[in-house]
Amino acid sequence: MFTRIAGRYDLMNRLMSFGQDVFWRRKMMVKINFPPRAVVLDLGAGTGDLSREVRRLTEGASITAADFTLGMLEAGKEWQSIQRCNADAMRLPFAADRFDVVVSGFLVRNVESVEQTLAEMVRVLKPGGQLLILDMTRPRSKVLAPFIRFYLNRVVPLLGAMVTGQKEAYTYLPDSTQSFLKAEELANKMKASGLHDVEFETLNFGTVAIHHGVLAEY
Asked: Residue 138's pLDDT is what?
């Protein structure tokens, strides 16, 4: 499915979010304390938007963009100084304690097991490393919920059909969003995976959340 929409993926993200997805990524970057010459993993990197944000803000960082869908990585542009890796988020091909920072954008709600994915993210983090997750979340506002559901269930699939010709892919989006964890539930799973100082911030009328956690030093 993601291979079929790869060529128009970035355009659809801009249209669906009214350009706010760029702001969300930059908001996420502000929360990261990059060490000198940071080693960074962008997991579920897609076409590389988040990796390029890391590159823009860091000097001398080693950045690896990993994604399960090879077609998404191939559709991305401007990969200079960014390594690409076709990888399963639940079975990462990296050694333990390798990365200073692990980031993911719109990945976690798509995996078969959130717990296994978090375990792998934590495994490859260095002690003291930071994990940040940007993803959709179920809105809290009961007043806005009907309008959000209408947009997700009616407008987004129609827009997806017009722009990509893949209506079913953009029917999956609202389904995955509405069945995903609440922000508090994901925070609890991050704590259970071994992270501490776990915090989250909700954006876009409570439909998007940025989670941040730190792996304890030995």
From this structure: 79
**What are the domain boundaries of the chain?**
2-138+181-215
Per-residue pLDDT tens for 63-95? 999 999 999 899 998 999 999 999 999 999 999
Q: Within the chain, what is the greatest distance between any pair of CA atoms?
A: 52
What's the pLDDT at 141? 67
pLDDT at residue 145 in the model: 77
In the CATH scheme, what is the code of domain 2-138+181-215?
A: 3.40.50.150
- How far is it, in rounded angstroms, from Cα 131 to Cα 212? 6
DSSP string, the chain: -HHHHGGGHHHHHHHHHTTHHHHHHHHHHHT--PPTT-EEEEET-TTSHHHHHHHHH-SS-EEEEEES-HHHHHH----TTEEEEE-BTTB--S-TT-EEEEEEES-GGGSS-HHHHHHHHHHHEEEEEEEEEEEE-----TTTHHHHHHIIIIIHHHHHHHHHS-TTHHHHHHHHHHTSPPHHHHHHHHHHTTEEEEEEEEETTTTEEEEEEEEPP-
With a cut of 50, list the residues of the chain below it in pLDDT.
Answer: none
